[in-house]
């Protein structure tokens, strides 16, 4: 880890530009005068829940916060600067608040109590077109521990498609035309299908789904942006300003397709997701329960929570030794279904969640440029806290319950592997779900 003695408070908030945000962090890119460290970098700041109504204080602090130092070490690829004063961050936050989407502003704010942020390479600034794809879950679960009710559903429908359906029933935006198993298939036809699905969902939601984001010179582009959208399509695909949306869509897909066809990254990501999540959420929940019962039988406190964050939150040493075991031939022995292996499965599940939530950044260059062809980079490899696990158990149950209520004929089937046969016999409307 490279530590730099750098004070961001020497920069003005106006020299930073709001880029985007996820559930935990907000990202700004440096736009100020040429600086040996900051030029070409983005700054990621942690968020905190906004105060509840009628209560003037910020939301309850996370009892087990993930520090930026931990994040930095976890990723081992970013630069951690020595920070800023809180007054600077307060001014910074106030200055950029109007740039944030309203739906984000009402529930969260920049955490001004933090004394660190994370500086990382700016992968999207400076190029006319950068695309962020969040592929999500690229596998169907191991059926061994699935219940009778969930098995027929979970072995035919992927988690991402089912979750999209839940979001839709809750009135939220979701990528209803996209199945990650198509993106991960390695088949040209299905990859094209996945990219079309992402584009259609992006257009229909006016760019508010998180599976696809488009950036032009570091600024987010949305389909309804009018002039910005036109400028982006003209510059990125050499199209006339009045080009039809269908022409832009096919240029977009034609540009991305070779990037996905010629990378082994997706294969690596799905293999990691699958092998780290070997029990499925249900099997993992059963193992937690089994551990609780066993501890109670041994005379321990009956209410003992095997996932208690104080004892289960992994340290950096835990991660290092876990990776050693995971990569060793011994790992079969350490991963059998028994309470003594709960810690192994907890770390494995958390790491799987990191890969299930990562994003890919693809930079597309204008056709006329004589530069090297673009490449895919992985971002958002953030550490997930053990505190999230109970919420994941509940969400898993809810997702399957909602999906089970959908008439069988209306369900879409998600195909694992590179088979294309179903895609020849199945009408497009059914595949799009
Ligand atoms: Zn699917």
Distance between the termini: 46 Å
Q: What are the bound molecules?
A: zinc ion
Count of helix runs = 18
Return residue spans where pLDDT drops below 50 for at least 5 consecutive residues: 1-5, 52-61, 76-83, 367-372, 426-430
Helix content: 40-55%
Indicate the proportion of strand residues.
5-15%
* Gyration radius, rounded: 23 Å
User: If you average the pLDDT, what whole number results?
Assistant: 83
Order of helices and strands: EEEEHEHHEEEHHHHEEHHHHHHHHEEHHH
Structural class, please?
alpha+beta
Overall tally of domains: 2
User: Sheet bearing the most strands, described?
Assistant: 5 strands, antiparallel
Please report the total strand number as a whole number: 12
What does this structure look like?
With 433 residues, the protein is an alpha+beta fold. The chain folds into two domains: 2-122, Inositol-pentakisphosphate 2-kinase, N-lobe (Phosphorylase Kinase, domain 1, 2-Layer Sandwich); 134-205 and 262-433, no CATH class. The chain is 41% helix and 13% strand. It has helices at residues 68-75, 86-96, 102-105, 151-154, 159-169, 180-183, 188-204, 227-237, 245-261, 265-276, 280-297, 309-312, 316-327, 331-334, 342-356, 389-404, 421-425, 428-431; strands at residues 2-4, 16-21, 25-30, 41-49, 79-81, 108-110, 118-121, 129-133, 212-216, 219-221, 359-364, 376-379. Helix 5 (159-169) packs across helix 16 and helix 7 (188-204) crosses helix 9 (245-261). The relative contact order is 0.13. Bound molecules: zinc ion.
């Amino acid at each position: 880890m490279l530590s730099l003695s750098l004070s961001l408070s020497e920069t003005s908030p106006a020299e930073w530009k709001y880029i985007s945000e996820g559930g935990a962090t907000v990202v700004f890119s440096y736009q100020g005068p040429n600086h040996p460290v900051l030029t070409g970098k983005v700054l990621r700041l942690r968020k905190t829940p906004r105060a509840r109504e009628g209560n003037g204080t910020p939301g309850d602090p996370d009892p087990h916060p993930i520090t930026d130092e931990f994040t930095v070490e976890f990723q081992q690829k970013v630069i951690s600067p020595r920070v800023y004063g809180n007054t600077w961050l307060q001014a910074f936050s106030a200055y950029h608040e109007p740039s944030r989407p309203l739906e984000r502003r009402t529930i969260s704010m920049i955490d001004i109590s933090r004394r660190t942020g994370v500086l990382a390479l700016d992968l999207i600034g400076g190029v006319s077109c950068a695309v962020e794809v969040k592929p999500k879950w690229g596998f169907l679960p191991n059926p061994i521990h699935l219940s009778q009710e969930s098995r027929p559903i979970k072995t035919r429908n992927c988690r991402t498609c089912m979750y999209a359906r839940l979001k839709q029933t809750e009135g939220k935006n979701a990528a209803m035309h996209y199945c990650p198993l198509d993106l991960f298939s390695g088949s040209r036809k299905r990859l094209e299908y996945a990219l079309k699905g992402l584009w259609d969902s992006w257009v229909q939601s006016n760019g508010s789904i998180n599976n696809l984001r488009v950036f032009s010179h570091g600024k987010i582009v949305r389909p309804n942006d009018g002039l910005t959208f036109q400028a982006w399509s003209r510059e990125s695909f050499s199209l006339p300003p009045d080009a039809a949306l269908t022409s832009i869509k096919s240029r977009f897909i034609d540009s991305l397709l070779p990037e996905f066809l010629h990378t082994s990254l997706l294969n690596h990501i799905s293999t990691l997701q699958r092998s780290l999540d070997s029990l499925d959420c249900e099997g993992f929940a059963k193992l937690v329960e089994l551990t609780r019962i066993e501890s109670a039988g041994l005379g321990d406190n009956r209410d003992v929570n095997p996932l208690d964050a104080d004892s289960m939150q992994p340290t950096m040493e835990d991660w290092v030794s876990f990776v050693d075991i995971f990569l060793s031939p011994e790992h079969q022995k350490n991963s059998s279904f028994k309470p003594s292996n709960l810690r192994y499965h907890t770390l494995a599940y958390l790491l799987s969640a990191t890969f299930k939530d990562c994003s890919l950044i693809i930079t597309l260059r204008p056709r006329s440029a004589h530069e090297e062809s673009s490449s895919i980079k992985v971002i958002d490899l953030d550490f997930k806290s053990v505190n999230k696990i109970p919420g994941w158990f509940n969400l898993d149950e809810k997702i399957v319950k909602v999906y089970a209520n959908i008439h069988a004929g209306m369900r879409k089937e998600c195909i694992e592997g590179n088979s294309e046969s179903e895609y020849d016999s199945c009408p497009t409307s059914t595949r799009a779900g």
